[in-house]
Inverse folding.
Protein backbone atom coordinates (compact mmCIF):
# COMPACT_ATOMS: atom_id res chain seq x y z
CA UNK A 1 0.00 0.00 0.00
CA UNK A 2 1.25 3.47 -0.86
CA UNK A 3 1.82 5.50 2.29
CA UNK A 4 0.99 8.92 0.80
CA UNK A 5 -0.94 8.77 -2.44
CA UNK A 6 -2.00 11.67 -4.59
CA UNK A 7 -4.10 11.83 -7.72
CA UNK A 8 -3.90 12.56 -10.52
CA UNK A 9 -0.24 12.09 -11.37
CA UNK A 10 -0.55 14.37 -14.37
CA UNK A 11 -3.01 17.20 -14.97
CA UNK A 12 -3.21 19.37 -18.07
CA UNK A 13 -5.81 22.11 -18.08
CA UNK A 14 -6.61 25.45 -19.58
CA UNK A 15 -6.17 28.86 -18.00
CA UNK A 16 -9.15 29.95 -15.94
CA UNK A 17 -10.29 26.46 -15.03
CA UNK A 18 -10.79 25.19 -11.49
CA UNK A 19 -9.12 21.91 -10.53
CA UNK A 20 -8.49 19.71 -7.51
CA UNK A 21 -5.69 17.40 -6.49
CA UNK A 22 -6.42 14.69 -3.95
CA UNK A 23 -4.11 13.35 -1.26
CA UNK A 24 -4.53 10.49 1.17
CA UNK A 25 -2.18 9.07 3.79
CA UNK A 26 -2.56 5.72 5.53
CA UNK A 27 0.22 6.26 8.07
CA UNK A 28 -1.92 7.59 10.88
CA UNK A 29 -0.01 10.86 10.80
CA UNK A 30 -1.47 13.93 12.45
CA UNK A 31 -0.25 16.60 10.04
CA UNK A 32 -0.47 16.93 6.27
CA UNK A 33 1.18 19.38 3.90
CA UNK A 34 1.19 20.67 0.37
CA UNK A 35 4.45 21.69 -1.30
CA UNK A 36 5.10 23.24 -4.69
CA UNK A 37 8.18 22.42 -6.76
CA UNK A 38 8.88 24.98 -9.45
CA UNK A 39 10.73 24.56 -12.74
CA UNK A 40 14.06 25.03 -10.96
CA UNK A 41 13.23 22.11 -8.67
CA UNK A 42 12.91 24.34 -5.62
CA UNK A 43 10.46 22.90 -3.09
CA UNK A 44 8.41 25.34 -1.04
CA UNK A 45 5.74 24.82 1.58
CA UNK A 46 2.24 25.97 0.70
CA UNK A 47 0.09 24.71 3.57
CA UNK A 48 0.36 22.63 6.69
CA UNK A 49 -2.71 21.30 8.44
CA UNK A 50 -3.71 19.15 11.35
CA UNK A 51 -7.04 18.85 13.07
CA UNK A 52 -6.31 21.94 15.08
CA UNK A 53 -4.60 24.40 12.88
CA UNK A 54 -4.17 25.45 9.27
CA UNK A 55 -1.03 27.40 8.49
CA UNK A 56 -0.86 29.10 5.14
CA UNK A 57 2.32 30.35 3.55
CA UNK A 58 1.68 34.02 3.02
CA UNK A 59 3.01 33.90 -0.53
CA UNK A 60 0.33 31.46 -1.67
CA UNK A 61 -2.47 33.15 -3.66
CA UNK A 62 -5.95 32.78 -2.20
CA UNK A 63 -6.94 30.94 -5.37
CA UNK A 64 -5.38 27.93 -3.65
CA UNK A 65 -7.32 26.34 -0.81
CA UNK A 66 -6.79 23.12 1.12
CA UNK A 67 -9.78 21.03 2.12
CA UNK A 68 -9.56 18.26 4.70
CA UNK A 69 -12.60 15.97 4.98
CA UNK A 70 -10.81 13.90 7.64
CA UNK A 71 -7.38 13.34 9.17
CA UNK A 72 -6.24 11.06 6.38
CA UNK A 73 -7.05 13.42 3.51
CA UNK A 74 -5.91 16.87 2.43
CA UNK A 75 -7.08 17.96 -1.00
CA UNK A 76 -5.86 21.01 -2.87
CA UNK A 77 -8.34 23.15 -4.78
CA UNK A 78 -7.14 25.70 -7.27
CA UNK A 79 -9.46 28.30 -8.78
CA UNK A 80 -8.93 30.34 -11.94
CA UNK A 81 -5.73 28.57 -12.93
CA UNK A 82 -2.91 30.70 -14.33
CA UNK A 83 0.10 29.79 -16.47
CA UNK A 84 2.39 30.40 -13.49
CA UNK A 85 0.64 27.68 -11.52
CA UNK A 86 2.34 25.07 -13.69
CA UNK A 87 4.56 23.05 -11.35
CA UNK A 88 4.77 19.77 -9.52
CA UNK A 89 2.70 19.67 -6.36
CA UNK A 90 3.65 17.31 -3.56
CA UNK A 91 1.55 16.16 -0.67
CA UNK A 92 3.29 15.06 2.53
CA UNK A 93 2.47 13.93 6.05
CA UNK A 94 4.22 13.61 9.39
CA UNK A 95 3.54 13.06 13.06
CA UNK A 96 4.51 15.35 15.88
CA UNK A 97 5.65 14.34 19.32
CA UNK A 98 7.04 16.36 22.18
CA UNK A 99 10.55 15.90 20.84
CA UNK A 100 10.03 16.82 17.22
CA UNK A 101 8.52 16.04 13.84
CA UNK A 102 8.95 12.54 12.51
CA UNK A 103 8.17 10.24 9.65
CA UNK A 104 8.00 12.95 7.02
CA UNK A 105 6.72 11.14 3.94
CA UNK A 106 6.02 12.58 0.51
CA UNK A 107 3.63 11.52 -2.21
CA UNK A 108 4.86 10.93 -5.75
CA UNK A 109 3.72 14.35 -6.96
CA UNK A 110 1.18 15.79 -9.38
CA UNK A 111 2.56 17.50 -12.46
CA UNK A 112 0.20 20.36 -13.28
CA UNK A 113 0.46 22.02 -16.68
CA UNK A 114 -1.67 25.05 -17.42
CA UNK A 115 -2.01 25.90 -21.11
CA UNK B 1 15.74 34.53 1.99
CA UNK B 2 17.11 31.06 1.43
CA UNK B 3 17.63 29.49 4.84
CA UNK B 4 19.35 26.32 3.69
CA UNK B 5 22.31 26.41 1.35
CA UNK B 6 23.32 23.25 -0.45
CA UNK B 7 26.64 22.75 -2.13
CA UNK B 8 27.60 21.93 -4.71
CA UNK B 9 24.62 22.68 -6.96
CA UNK B 10 25.65 19.90 -9.28
CA UNK B 11 28.22 17.16 -9.23
CA UNK B 12 29.53 14.74 -11.83
CA UNK B 13 31.61 11.85 -10.55
CA UNK B 14 33.11 8.72 -11.99
CA UNK B 15 31.55 5.49 -10.86
CA UNK B 16 33.34 4.15 -7.80
CA UNK B 17 34.38 7.56 -6.48
CA UNK B 18 33.35 9.00 -3.13
CA UNK B 19 31.48 12.29 -2.85
CA UNK B 20 30.11 14.68 -0.26
CA UNK B 21 27.14 17.04 -0.39
CA UNK B 22 26.76 19.78 2.19
CA UNK B 23 23.75 21.52 3.68
CA UNK B 24 24.33 24.66 5.74
CA UNK B 25 22.00 26.85 7.75
CA UNK B 26 22.47 30.18 9.47
CA UNK B 27 20.06 29.00 12.16
CA UNK B 28 19.98 25.93 14.37
CA UNK B 29 18.46 22.93 12.63
CA UNK B 30 15.65 21.14 14.42
CA UNK B 31 15.39 17.91 12.51
CA UNK B 32 17.30 17.59 9.26
CA UNK B 33 15.99 15.35 6.51
CA UNK B 34 17.80 14.08 3.45
CA UNK B 35 15.81 13.01 0.40
CA UNK B 36 16.66 11.77 -3.06
CA UNK B 37 14.55 12.64 -6.09
CA UNK B 38 14.78 11.10 -9.52
CA UNK B 39 13.42 13.03 -12.48
CA UNK B 40 9.63 12.95 -12.61
CA UNK B 41 9.36 11.06 -9.37
CA UNK B 42 8.64 11.75 -5.74
CA UNK B 43 11.00 12.25 -2.84
CA UNK B 44 12.62 9.15 -1.41
CA UNK B 45 13.44 9.43 2.27
CA UNK B 46 17.09 8.71 3.07
CA UNK B 47 17.76 9.76 6.65
CA UNK B 48 16.70 12.05 9.43
CA UNK B 49 19.10 13.61 11.93
CA UNK B 50 18.14 15.42 15.05
CA UNK B 51 20.92 15.44 17.61
CA UNK B 52 24.16 17.38 17.40
CA UNK B 53 26.97 15.09 16.31
CA UNK B 54 24.55 12.43 15.10
CA UNK B 55 25.60 10.18 12.26
CA UNK B 56 23.52 7.64 10.38
CA UNK B 57 24.33 5.23 7.59
CA UNK B 58 22.29 3.27 5.10
CA UNK B 59 24.12 1.05 2.66
CA UNK B 60 26.76 3.31 1.12
CA UNK B 61 25.27 6.62 2.24
CA UNK B 62 26.26 8.33 5.49
CA UNK B 63 24.78 11.55 6.85
CA UNK B 64 26.11 13.63 9.71
CA UNK B 65 24.83 16.60 11.66
CA UNK B 66 27.49 18.77 13.25
CA UNK B 67 27.63 19.52 16.96
CA UNK B 68 26.24 23.01 16.51
CA UNK B 69 23.35 21.61 14.43
CA UNK B 70 23.92 24.11 11.64
CA UNK B 71 25.51 21.92 9.02
CA UNK B 72 24.87 18.48 7.66
CA UNK B 73 26.81 16.45 5.15
CA UNK B 74 25.81 13.50 3.02
CA UNK B 75 28.62 11.20 1.98
CA UNK B 76 28.35 8.50 -0.67
CA UNK B 77 31.04 5.86 -0.79
CA UNK B 78 31.94 4.07 -4.03
CA UNK B 79 29.23 5.79 -6.05
CA UNK B 80 27.13 3.85 -8.55
CA UNK B 81 24.89 4.97 -11.41
CA UNK B 82 21.90 4.14 -9.19
CA UNK B 83 22.96 6.99 -6.90
CA UNK B 84 22.27 9.56 -9.61
CA UNK B 85 19.50 12.04 -8.90
CA UNK B 86 18.78 15.23 -7.01
CA UNK B 87 19.60 15.24 -3.31
CA UNK B 88 17.58 17.58 -1.14
CA UNK B 89 18.08 18.56 2.46
CA UNK B 90 15.08 19.79 4.41
CA UNK B 91 14.98 21.23 7.91
CA UNK B 92 12.11 21.58 10.32
CA UNK B 93 11.26 25.18 11.01
CA UNK B 94 11.04 25.81 14.67
CA UNK B 95 7.93 27.47 16.00
CA UNK B 96 4.31 26.91 15.26
CA UNK B 97 2.54 23.66 15.83
CA UNK B 98 3.45 22.05 12.53
CA UNK B 99 6.79 20.99 11.19
CA UNK B 100 7.08 22.71 7.83
CA UNK B 101 10.21 21.64 6.02
CA UNK B 102 12.42 24.33 4.55
CA UNK B 103 14.37 22.88 1.63
CA UNK B 104 17.69 23.62 0.07
CA UNK B 105 17.78 24.03 -3.70
CA UNK B 106 19.12 20.57 -4.20
CA UNK B 107 22.30 18.99 -5.54
CA UNK B 108 22.13 17.24 -8.89
CA UNK B 109 24.36 14.19 -8.90
CA UNK B 110 25.43 12.42 -12.09
CA UNK B 111 27.50 9.25 -11.94
CA UNK B 112 29.44 8.33 -15.06
CA UNK B 113 29.87 4.61 -15.65
Amino acid sequence: DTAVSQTPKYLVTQMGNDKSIKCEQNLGHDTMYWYKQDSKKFLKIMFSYNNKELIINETVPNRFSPKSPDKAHLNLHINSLELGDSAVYFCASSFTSGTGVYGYTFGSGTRLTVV
Amino acid sequence: SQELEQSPQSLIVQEGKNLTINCTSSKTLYGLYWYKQKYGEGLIFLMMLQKGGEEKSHEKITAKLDEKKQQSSLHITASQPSHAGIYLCGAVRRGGSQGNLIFGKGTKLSVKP
